[in-house]
Amino acid sequence: MKAAKLRVLENRQVSERYWHMVVDAAELPDEVKPGQFFNVRCADEIYPLLRRPFSIYKINKRERTLEFLYLVKGVGTQRLTEIRAGEKADVFGPLGTGFNLNAEDGAMLMLARGVGIATLAALAQEAAEKGVRSVAVLSARSRNDLLAAETLESYGAKVYKVTDEEGNSDVASVGKLLEGIFREENITAAYTCGSKRLAELLQRMAADKHIFAEIALEENMGCAMGVCFACVCDIQEQDGSVRTVRVCKEGPVFPLEQVVIA
Ligand SMILES: Cc1cc2nc3c(=O)[nH]c(=O)nc-3n(C[C@H](O)[C@H](O)[C@H](O)COP(=O)(O)OP(=O)(O)OC[C@H]3O[C@@H](n4cnc5c(N)ncnc54)[C@H](O)[C@@H]3O)c2cc1C
Ligand code: FES
């Protein structure tokens, strides 16, 4: 883990609300794992003071570049769009725990909503590299927000898209879709990010079917180093006790069965 100023190779708008940034990661010594994130300074000025966390969207080992896909939400991400190719991005990382790819004897399922898709894309990339079959159910407000679907398809993932505008993204409809996928695809591991309602659904289904499942949590962060406790959530231990953990330090990836989804 280190702070570095990485050269931005590309930072451009890719849809109405999303931007894509590519940085030169040659000077980062650590291996970066899907599910890990970087804490990024969005502007050179004092405001906004706090860095913003972003997952790794794509890892290009040969070129030694990293890619981020981000939703322009508030002041930090708005300022991030102002960084031009050739300028430096001030990043800190890689931080947190990565996913455990655990579907070698079957296929893995990814269930994501909104920017959660960005977090799971790097896992789909790793699955493709290791010859693991993957199926993704992507949920978003509109079709326009499903741009990462093409990236997943380029990794060979079978992609199902559901959107609020088409009226097929409610939990009941997604549950039916998942039942069909579980029946047909020999799913042996499942991963989710981006929606508490969908995470609850997958938590129930994975428990019923005894499937290995992980979740990448997103919480508002301050330090992203385990110091400020801004990012806590609850984990249920096997003996029934509840433990409070820091998403930035002990996570962001956790066993889905253990997370108390509030
Ligand atoms: C581990 C992790 C990985 C993430 N990966 C991505 C990603 O790949 N792409 C992407 O678009 N977004 C990602 N997010 C969410 C992203 O960090 C927020 O959208 C971003 O911080 C919003 O900043 P803002 O200034 O534009 O919004 P504002 O709402 O103005 O932010 C105000 C404050 O709230 C915090 N905040 C607001 N929303 C979130 C949120 N959902 N999660 C965490 N902190 C938040 C900000 O850090 C800031 O301190 C991730 C969040 C976490 C925790
Ligand atoms: S953000 Fe400070 S402890 Fe997690």
Task: Give a structural overview.
The chain has helices at residues 75-80, 116-129, 148-154, 171-185, 196-209, and strands at 2-13, 18-24, 37-41, 52-55, 58-60, 65-71, 88-95, 107-113, 133-140, 158-163, 187-193, 212-216, 232-236, 242-246, 253-255. The two termini are 30 Å apart. It has 262 residues and is an alpha/beta fold. β13 (232-236) and β14 form a beta hairpin. The mean pLDDT is 95. α2 (116-129) runs parallel beside α3 and α4 runs parallel beside α5. Bound molecules: flavin-adenine dinucleotide and FE2/S2 (inorganic) cluster. FE2/S2 (inorganic) cluster binds next to loops.
Structural class: alpha/beta
Distance between the termini: 30 Å
Query: What is the ordering of alpha helices and beta strands?
Result: EEEEEEHEEHEHEHEHEEEE
From the alpha carbons, calculate the radius of gyration and give it in angstroms.
Answer: 18 Å
Q: How many separate helices?
A: 5
Note the quaternary state here: single chain
Bound molecules: flavin-adenine dinucleotide, FE2/S2 (inorganic) cluster
Largest sheet, in brief, is: 7 strands, antiparallel
Low-confidence segments, given as residue ranges, are: none
What's the total count of β strands? 15
Strand content is 35-45%
